[in-house]
User: Which sequence fits this backbone?
């Protein structure tokens, strides 16, 4: 049976690990050399969710931005959802979650969102970044995951949650 | 095994493109300009040349083309097929890396524009030719030359949902099922590229209708909810736009509701696949189809003329026989036959009483001999429309000059096969292939040349392959190659020129036993040591990337026997 196709975007500040999360999820590899993404790169992954049709996720890896409004909003067009990523060890990347989400919703107002607090492997259990991230997520009332592209922690869970949300009609 | 390196097969063509467009923008631009001029001159010349020929020759040429279409396709298929397959199939996600910088450069636009202007001019000319003709006759050889320089094929068609960039339907002309690229990804990328270009060239009307790279073209036909993207090679005729507009229109009419409501379910669009497939095969017919499309009825005319000629000849024969001139006529026929069978010679004969009018071409020496023989046999000959070709050896010499100028070794060969001329041989890249054919066409002024030149670079390929399949091993705990590997490295480098390597990743590896810092350092030193050798051989540092890899004890060493090594990723 042919899968349902959905477009999702990964958004967030420069260097928070968007590309790394995708590579971990799609190819199950991690690479510590840093090549900043220019423009967009599209990857795909088919996921099976119990009790649902398969979803073919077309994952748009959008270049990172330090200031919101810099990236062409056209990239968000038609996205069923977005994973908005921050780096738990970089406070301003967490503070930028909200404006990034606002930008995204301006174009795709029904788009579903999950938050990824990435590089969890770098911060201790009581690191202020973790606390700020959790607090922000609760305020925004969005599902969130502390992820690590390096060791794979929660990466699949985060994508699958997004997958579930985008095929959920409600 | 090598995690952090892009796939080995990643497209050479794309890299070539990057190199051509980014590193040598200016050079490329001027080369292109030069070629445009050359091409234009060629067409102008051609016109003059043809004008001087009697109309009948056009018909004969035309007929020849009609007859040998299959042959043509055969001659071209290997050349075109390979280059294109590599480009499309191996591009995959690398398309992104390549196209972004390319489109982002304004030079790209100016080259594209120059190209387009030329193409338009040529198309107009063809249209003129076809519609008005000269004295009601077409000059298919000009069209043929054009199609030869830029043969047109539709490689793939994508129907892409506009808003999401998701693929709704796809068809390709690939026979090899393994070669099917990841269309879903490509359609996403295409959409992304369009967005990018819209942002990059923000000024109003600049939305992207055409993306060009190398000899591939992506032509986009926008519809309200979906757009069609055609990956084509060569330059489509002027009617192509109309045809695809029509296709887009039909799809929107038939699937309006499904398109509007699309939310990821592609099943409703399944039947479109068949439509797209038949579209490809209709357009795919190489080269002449389009130029001749709509001209089929007229296309019969030369055949009729030819048939008429034969009837005439038979009638004449009959007449002569009845006039008891059988012996003479037989003599004439055998004479003509003899020359007709010579490679590169083709002509027709008309006769009135004792006068013969020769149309066609023959090599100089043969022509002289033929005329002499006919005169000796008592015929009066009008040979104004009889084109004289320089002897094959002279043309080969010209071709040798072209080969020498373009650094092609061994030189290209010219093969004369009945009325056709083929260029054959091997060149390192597509540009050279086209250049060689054009130069020779301009110099030889032959009415028709088939370009059977192939693109290969054996030395480079050998070098790249051996780099990708070999590792170099080190003395334990040191950055010194063991003697075996040192020998291998030297041997490896003798296989080709390191300057031909476009990108090289040198990965220094070590195992994790012992001090981690020391291991990292060792891996780095190993990579450096090998890099030094490449630099000494003249390789550009900017093309080399160094990486390190420390294998943990549990990790396998991959395809190579030990972890104490340097391995490569070369393109
Ligand atoms: N320790 C650790 N490093 C990470 C993790 N994810 C990414 N990195 C590193 O962070 C750097 C940036 O990662 P990318 O994935 O390229 O970041 P990005 O968000 O795609 O960056 P842009 O494309 O520039 O916006 C790289 O050096 C990665 O190796 C992680 O989970 N843990
Ligand atoms: Mg990135």
Assistant:
């Amino acid at each position: 049976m042919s899968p349902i196709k959905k477009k999702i975007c990964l958004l967030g500040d420069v260097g928070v690990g968007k590309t790394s999360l995708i590579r971990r999820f799609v190819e199950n590899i991690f690479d510590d050399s840093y090549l900043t993404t220019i423009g967009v790169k599209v990857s795909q992954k088919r996921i099976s969710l119990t009790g649902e049709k398969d979803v073919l996720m077309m994952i748009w890896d959008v270049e990172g931005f330090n200031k919101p409004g810099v990236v062409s909003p056209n990239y968000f067009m038609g996205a069923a959802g977005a994973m908005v990523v921050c780096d738990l060890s970089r406070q301003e990347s967490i503070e930028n979650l909200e404006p990034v989400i606002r930008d995204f919703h301006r174009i795709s107002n029904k788009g579903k969102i999950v938050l990824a607090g990435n590089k969890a492997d770098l911060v201790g259990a009581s690191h202020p970044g973790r606390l700020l991230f959790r607090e922000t997520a609760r305020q925004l009332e969005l599902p969130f995951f502390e992820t690590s592209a390096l060791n794979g922690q929660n990466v699949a869970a985060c994508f699958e949650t997004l997958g579930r949300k985008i095929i959920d009609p409600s | 095994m090598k995690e952090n390196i892009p796939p080995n097969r990643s497209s050479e063509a794309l890299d070539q493109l990057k190199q051509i467009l980014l590193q040598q923008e200016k050079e490329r631009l001027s080369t292109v300009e030069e070629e445009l001029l050359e091409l234009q001159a060629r067409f102008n010349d051609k016109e003059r040349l043809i004008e001087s020929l009697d109309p009948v020759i056009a018909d004969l040429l035309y007929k020849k083309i009609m007859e040998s279409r299959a042959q043509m396709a055969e001659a071209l298929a290997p050349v075109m097929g390979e280059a294109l397959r590599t480009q499309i199939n191996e591009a995959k996600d690398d398309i992104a890396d390549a196209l972004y910088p390319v489109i982002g450069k304004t030079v790209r636009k100016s080259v594209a524009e120059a190209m387009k202007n030329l193409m338009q001019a040529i198309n107009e000319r063809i249209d003129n030719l076809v519609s008005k003709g000269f004295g009601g006759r077409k000059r298919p050889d000009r069209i043929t030359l054009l199609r030869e320089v830029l043969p047109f094929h539709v490689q793939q068609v994508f129907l892409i949902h506009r808003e999401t960039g998701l693929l709704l339907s796809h068809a390709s002309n690939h026979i090899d099922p393994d070669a099917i690229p990841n269309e879903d990804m490509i359609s996403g990328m295409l959409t992304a590229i369009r967005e990018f270009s819209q942002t990059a060239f923000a000024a109003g009307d600049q939305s992207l209708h055409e993306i060009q790279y190398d000899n591939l073209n992506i032509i986009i036909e926008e519809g309200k909810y979906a757009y069609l993207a055609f990956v084509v090679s060569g330059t489509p005729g002027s009617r192509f736009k109309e045809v695809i507009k029509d296709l887009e229109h039909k799809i929107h009419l038939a699937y309006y509701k499904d398109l509007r409501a699309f939310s990821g379910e592609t099943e409703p669009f399944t039947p479109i696949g068949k439509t797209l497939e038949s579209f490809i095969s209709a357009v795919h017919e190489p080269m002449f189809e389009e130029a001749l499309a709509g001209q089929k009825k007229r296309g019969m005319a030369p055949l009729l003329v030819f048939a008429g000629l034969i009837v005439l000849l038979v009638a004449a024969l009959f007449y002569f026989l009845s006039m008891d001139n059988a012996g003479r006529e037989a003599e004439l026929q055998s004479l003509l036959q003899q020359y007709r069978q010579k490679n590169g010679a083709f002509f027709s004969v008309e006769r009135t009483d004792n006068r013969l009018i020769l149309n066609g071409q023959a090599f100089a020496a043969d022509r002289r001999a033929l005329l002499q023989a006919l005169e000796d046999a008592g015929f009066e000959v009008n040979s104004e429309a009889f084109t004289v070709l320089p002897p094959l050896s002279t043309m080969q010499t010209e071709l040798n000059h072209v080969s020498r100028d373009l650094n092609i070794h061994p030189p290209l060969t010219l093969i004369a096969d009945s009325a056709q001329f083929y260029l054959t041989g091997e060149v390192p890249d597509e540009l050279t292939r086209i250049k060689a054919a054009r130069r020779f066409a301009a110099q030889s002024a032959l009415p028709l040349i088939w370009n059977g030149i192939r693109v290969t670079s054996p030395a480079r390929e050998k070098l790249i392959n051996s780099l990708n399949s070999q590792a170099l091993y080190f003395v334990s705990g040191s950055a010194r190659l063991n003697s075996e590997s040192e020998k291998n490295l030297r041997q490896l480098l003798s296989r080709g020129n390191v300057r031909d390597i476009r990108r090289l990743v040198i990965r220094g590896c070590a195992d994790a036993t012992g001090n981690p810092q020391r291991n990292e350092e060792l891996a780095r030193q190993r990579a450096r040591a090998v890099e030094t050798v490449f630099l000494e051989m003249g390789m550009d540092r900017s093309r080399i990337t160094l990486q390190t890899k420390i294998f943990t004890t549990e990790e396998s060493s991959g395809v190579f026997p030990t972890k104490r090594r340097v391995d490569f990723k070369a393109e």
Notes: Strands of chain A lie at 4-12, 40-47, 55-62, 81-87, 112-118, 144-146. Chain A has five helices and six strands. The longest helix of chain A spans residues 128-140.
